Amino acid sequence: MFSSLRREQKEAIGLLQVGTFLEYFDLMLYIHMAVLLNDLFFPKTDPHTAALLTAFAFCSTYVLRPFGAFLFGYIGDHIGRKTTVVMTTTMMAVSCIIMANLPTYSQIGITASWIVTVCRIVQGLSSMGEVVGAGIYLTETIKVPERYFAVSLITLSTALGSAFALGISSLVTLNGLNWRIAFWIGACIALVGAVARTRLRETPEFADMKRRMKRVIKDSYDNGLGEHAELLKSTNPIWKEKIDKKTILASFLVQSGWPVFFYFTYMYCGNMLKTKFGCTSEQIISHNFKVSLFQIAHVLVAQILCRWVYPLSVLKLYYRVGSCFILIIPFVLDKVSSPFELLCLQAFFILFALNSNPANAILVTYLPILRRFTCDTITYASSRAIVYMITSFGLVYLTESFGQFGLWFILIPVCIGYIWGVQYFDKLEREQNDYHPTNRASAEFALKRLQEEMAASRYSRLQERANYPTQEKTLLP
């Protein structure tokens, strides 16, 4: 598949894939061990309050991501993609070290709750910059059609990292080992990932565009045409490219599908295992590890399909199967009578989860090059933060009032938005031969046009100066 790629491109794929795997191992370690760790770091309360605390602990990872999106978006768009992915991996390692040494609630009280929440926020911020940065890096480094498969490897790494975190958690808890061992493992591998990523080079597309812009600005001032440079910065689409709000909305809706399916599969069903079937924390972690294997299968199937099927067609398959399953999910949940039956339900749900993979590379290309990192991180972060908050807190009250049918109030609107978003990008792809303001060829054409205008303007000025003495003589008596 990658036989046509250069050695440095293959090396970038390997480094980013390994780094994302390590990053998501660290991120998911607490999420999947929450059934155990929440009892250690938060006060014991009644079941309703405990459900709200669980939702709070889960959402703390995502709620401040939009603010981090502005930070990492600025760094990624102004300093570089490489700098961002190295920073995020280091942040993840530091937060893991703190949590591995953090005293429990019984030892230091509510301080433990606040510290672990801050660490979760830091991990959420770093993972956001990580997965978005890696996807953009490969999108700008590798050409179509290899690009689709390469970017989908990042999603595979997140699934593998999540499954590995569950595997380690299950191994530690079932064997009665100290849970802190898992976090020490996470800290060590995150540090290794940060060091390894220093070998990455900046993406050719980003570096080339920055270099071309600097050259145009320098040439304009050297030739006494500084006003053209200022005009370029204020009006040219390369600098002040208009962001299509409809495109941002479509991307948001497409990326909002996965958070709902993830929360239902692991958190909602995990709570059912605890309340309905009386499973222990260790049993729930082991059960979810089996579910994570189906998540890996989901990503692998998408990767295989994108080699022969257009990525957006894969997303259409998701919503055709997923929308039918959403309509019957309340009835099926009421009939579940054992953990094994619930496992089968979770497996089917995760296999056809509404997801942006393997079309992530398509969504990214319709964002402005010099605002791409910012736009994508904000869209990604907002989709996770908003949807996870609505889902986690909303289901607590909706299911209490409407039973399993309360799931419809969240699943159906998300599915409708997902379908519209996929159809929107499908329409853009059908029109890809037309002019598009975010198309790189159009940006290069704008730069070339500007250079020609500058050259013509300089020639005109030189001609005026050459003709000035002659014009002056003709005015003499």
What does this structure look like?
The chain has 477 residues and is an all-alpha fold. The chain has one domain (7-446): MFS general substrate transporter like domains (Growth Hormone, Chain: A, Up-down Bundle). The chain is 80% helix and 0% strand. It is built from 20 helices and no strands. The chain has helices at residues 7-32, 34-41, 47-59, 65-78, 81-101, 105-108, 110-141, 146-174, 180-196, 204-222, 226-235, 245-255, 257-275, 281-305, 311-335, 339-351, 360-365, 372-402, 408-430, 440-474. Helix 1 (7-32) runs parallel beside helix 8 (146-174) and helix 4 runs parallel beside helix 7. The chain starts with 6 loop residues before the first helix and ends with a helix. Mean pLDDT is 76; it is low at 225-239, 434-446 and 468-477.
Number of helices: 20
CATH architecture: Up-down Bundle
CATH superfamily: MFS general substrate transporter like domains
Distance between the termini: 81 Å
Percent strand equals: under 5%
| Mean of pLDDT | 76
Work out the helicity level.
over 70%
Concise description?
With 477 residues, this protein is an all-alpha fold. It has helices spanning 7-32, 34-41, 47-59, 65-78, 81-101, 105-108, 110-141, 146-174, 180-196, 204-222, 226-235, 245-255, 257-275, 281-305, 311-335, 339-351, 360-365, 372-402, 408-430, 440-474.
Blueprint of the fold:
Layout: H1 7-32, H2 34-41, H3 47-59, H4 65-78, H5 81-101, H6 105-108, H7 110-141, H8 146-174, H9 180-196, H10 204-222, H11 226-235, H12 245-255, H13 257-275, H14 281-305, H15 311-335, H16 339-351, H17 360-365, H18 372-402, H19 408-430, H20 440-474
Helix pairs in contact: 1-5, 1-7, 1-8, 1-9, 3-18, 4-5, 4-7, 4-18, 5-7, 5-9, 7-8, 7-18, 8-14, 10-11, 10-20, 12-18, 12-19, 13-14, 13-16, 13-18, 14-16, 15-19
